[in-house]
Amino acid sequence: MSQGAHALDLLRDLKLPRIVYNHPDTGKPQRTDVLLLSPWLAPIVWNDTYNLDILNAQLAQRKVRVGITVFAIKKYTVFVSTFVDTAEKYFMVGHKVTYYVFTDRVSDIPMVELAEGRQMVVLRVPTYQRWQDVTMRRMEMLRDYSRQRFIDEVDYLVCVDVDMRFSDEVGVEILSDLFGTLHPGMYGLPRESYTYERSPQSEAYIPLDEGDFYYAGGFFGGNIEEVYKLTNFCHNAMMTDKAKNIEAIWHDESYLNKFFLYHKPTKILSPEYLWDDMFGTPAFLRRRRFLAVRKNHNEIRN
Ligand code: 4GW
Ligand code: MN
């Protein structure tokens, strides 16, 4: 049985407890300042559009297991403690969570005290000389571990950058079969100006008259089967390009955008879920949930 069918079976048997909340008003959209649904009816998750109590009751009954993956290769191990500390405060509080930390420096990964039901798994992985390969090879490793391990251990995977901190709730409202996140730097721009790969030679090519949104490479996920398909597609496309000695302009992010163009996500996260304060604090942004940590590029990337 596929993961998706299994999840639906569990949902069908749900009987929620009494929960008191505001009556949904059929005459009034939750918000009018932002897009709430994609043209294929995938919800776009914004603050004030959902009730977390209902979602938590549904997902707790399913006893959902969430894996969150980060890569801390070479000097990026310095980001792990802030990442995990803030995740303990804000990420999927009350649910079963496994942190999967991929690293080449196992002894540099700090031991962090975790709340009940939460655990950390440190996975030793090879590193690459070129930083582009460090970020791109994440797809291959996520694919391989999805098949070999994650499928047996968790229901959903959340795949994120490590140079980040949580600063507000990120909960089960993000979960869906396949989800991506709107890139904060490209929000509201016309599709022609998105920094998709524009060379027709590349597997990541997207023509000027296509493209729904520009998705961020630093936050995507879904059930394990879907994440497997996504990461497998991206890795294979990168290998095809590599054989031709080409590489898409924004590396793994370009291939991710190509995948999402033809495999539409079932849920889309607003830039609340991946913000960088260098973009200011616009009015549509009612919460900043997951923020880029300032990094000294010279020191951290040498
Ligand atoms: C340039 O020298 C580098 S090093 C660019 C990325 C590097 C890097 C990235 C690294 O040395 N080690 C590492 O673990 N990563 C992982 O790739 C890490 O999880 C990081 O969050 C992710 C994406 O790289 P990034 O956060 O530096 O990319 P941006 O700045 O686009 O968020
Ligand atoms: Mn980053």
Written overview of the protein:
This protein is α/β, with parallel strands linked by helices and 302 residues long. It has a single domain (51-294), classed as Spore Coat Polysaccharide Biosynthesis Protein SpsA, Chain A. It contains 8 helices and 10 strands. The chain has helices spanning 3-12, 52-61, 80-90, 131-136, 138-153, 224-243, 252-262, 297-301, and strands at residues 44-45, 65-72, 96-103, 118-124, 156-160, 164-166, 178-182, 215-223, 267-269, 290-292. Strands 1-9-7-8-5-2-3-4 form an 8-stranded mixed β-sheet. Strands 6-10 form a two-stranded antiparallel sheet. Helix 5 packs antiparallel against helix 6 and helix 6 crosses helix 7. The model is unreliable at 1-5 (pLDDT under 50). The structure holds ligand 4GW and manganese (II) ion. The site of ligand 4GW has 14 residues, from strand 2 and helix 4.
Task: Describe this protein with a few key phrases.
10 strands; two-stranded antiparallel ribbon; 302 residues; binds manganese (II) ion; binds ligand 4GW; alpha/beta; Spore Coat Polysaccharide Biosynthesis Protein SpsA, Chain A; 8-stranded mixed sheet
In short:
The chain has 302 residues and is of the alpha/beta class. It has eight helices and ten strands. It has one domain (51-294): Spore Coat Polysaccharide Biosynthesis Protein SpsA, Chain A (Alpha-Beta Complex), CATH 3.90.550.10.
